[in-house]
Design a protein that fits this description.
Low-confidence stretches: 1-18, 394-398
Bound molecules: S-adenosyl-L-homocysteine, iron/sulfur cluster
CATH architecture of the largest domain: Alpha-Beta Barrel
Number of domains: 2
Strand content: 15-25%
Number of strands: 13
Largest sheet: 9 strands, mixed
Shape: elongated
Radius of gyration: 23 Å
Mean pLDDT: 88
Oligomer: single chain
């Protein structure tokens, strides 16, 4: 337990401090507004003040980036002492940072329990995208993905997910400076849930974290600037629209069930037709809310003209953009990247059918920070061949 040394400790604060739950102070980062209210009341905040207190503390944490209760200067000293006795404002620690020749930054981030995940910042002209992780490892085993070779170690908490945006803001020095003119250009203008893990298998934490990142009294990122990428967890797709409301990307990657079963084994549970039904029903679909179809270009596997034509046919009627991702190789990966001309020919067919078909520029490859390459080097929890086979729905070795 910590109390600021310069704060007068009143009897009240001491009584309250003794209410500390077992397990030590509670981290405020990651609590929804409602949960923060309950926590402040449990620590002794009078109920009639609770809403105002949440507003104040929220702004300090998420608008100004303040972690030290003593710096929350519009709160009385006694109240700051109460907060310090019961709570912390803690985000995951950056263990190391690598910077690519193209300016991409990869952070190795340590979370509670000593596990590690990766967060990647990709600067672009006048904007920038932060790619965050939602799980350590992944339960799924997409055969072209490096994360997929690592067991699921655990889900990240909402605080650890929102905390990745906060630690990147720390590193980029992007918190507002009191009194300084408001700067409209944002270094982190977009957030994508395309790091390690399947976000829809950690739905509640991802939702709470994105609510924090979108909150207008805090980091205030528009829901249109947040993209959640899923491999196709069909039952959670409608909830994503209703409870988060962010943009959706789908790891499509194949145009027949036979190929998709091999590349994205979750297809055995929810096949292409079922997935497309869910996408068609994605509420609030409009031209400005297109679904992004991610399509990794694998030489000789899914990159033919016939594939491109099938793709266009399959997604007919869905407002869509097709993001072609040149395969990022990793040590031991079983595929090769399609040739440049092949990718261009594929893109051309899609473009002529009326869809935007940007080819994603590989970024940060020299530091293994590109899509699908993330995997913490220190994690030893590897999947066995039997587990990979089981997820892929085929008979594994005895
Ligand atoms: N689990 C989620 C989000 C994380 S993966 C999902 O699968 O959608 C983010 C994107 O990177 C997905 O589209 C994924 O298919 C793609 N990806 C994975 N491995 C890749 C690789 N080696 N090269 C290029 N893209 C890859
Ligand atoms: Fe998991 Fe996504 Fe990688 Fe598939 S592509 S193994 S769902 S992280």
């Amino acid at each position: 337990m910590t109390t600021p040394t310069n704060a007068p400790i009143t009897q009240d604060v001491l009584t309250i401090a003794r209410k500390l739950p077992e397990g030590g102070p509670v981290n405020l980062v990651g609590l929804t507004r409602d949960a923060m209210r309950d926590a402040l009341i449990a620590a002794g905040t009078p109920e009639r003040q609770a809403k105002m207190r949440v507003g104040q503390v929220w702004q300090w944490i998420y608008h100004w980036g303040v972690r030290d209760f003593d710096a929350m200067t519009n709160l009385a000293k006694d109240y700051r002492a109460l907060l310090a006795a019961n709570f912390t404002v803690t985000i995951p620690e950056v263990v190391s940072k690598q910077e690519s020749a193209d300016g991409t930054r990869k952070y190795l981030v340590r979370i509670a329990g000593g596990h590690e995940v990766e967060t990647v910042y990709i600067p672009e002209e006048g904007r920038g995208t932060l790619c965050i992780s939602s799980q350590v490892g992944c339960t799924l085993t997409c055969s072209f993905c490096h994360t997929g070779t690592q067991k699921l170690v655990r889900n990240l908490t909402a605080g650890e997910i929102a905390g990745q945006v906060m630690l990147a803001r720390d590193d980029l020095e992007e918190w507002p400076v009191p009194g300084a003119p408001k700067d409209e250009t944002r270094l982190i203008s977009n957030v994508v849930l395309m790091g390690m893990g399947e976000p829809l298998y950690n739905f509640d934490a991802v939702r709470d974290a994105m609510k924090i990142v979108m909150d207008g009294e805090g980091m205030s990122l528009s829901r249109r600037r947040i993209t959640l990428s899923t491999s196709g967890v069909v039952p959670e797709i409608a909830r994503t629209a209703e409870e988060i409301g962010c943009m959706l990307a789908v790891s499509f990657h194949a145009t027949t069930d036979e190929v998709r079963d091999r590349l994205v084994p979750i297809n055995k549970r929810w096949n292409i037709a079922t997935l497309l039904d869910a996408l068609r029903a994605y509420p609030n679909l409009s031209n400005s809310e297109r679904i992004t179809f991610e399509y990794v270009m694998l030489k000789g596997v899914n990159d033919s003209d016939a594939d491109a034509r099938r793709l266009v046919h399959l997604i007919e009627g869905i407002p869509a953009k097709i993001n072609l991702i040149p395969f990022n190789e990793w040590p031991g990966s079983p595929y090769q990247r399609s040739d440049r001309d092949r990718i261009k020919a594929f893109a051309d067919i899609i473009f002529k059918a009326g869809y935007a078909s940007p080819i994603r520029k590989p970024r940060g490859e020299d530091i293994m920070a590109a899509c699908g390459q993330l995997k913490s080097a220190t994690e030893r929890a590897r999947k066995s061949r039997a587990e990979i086979a089981a997820e892929a729905g085929v008979q594994g070795p005895a």
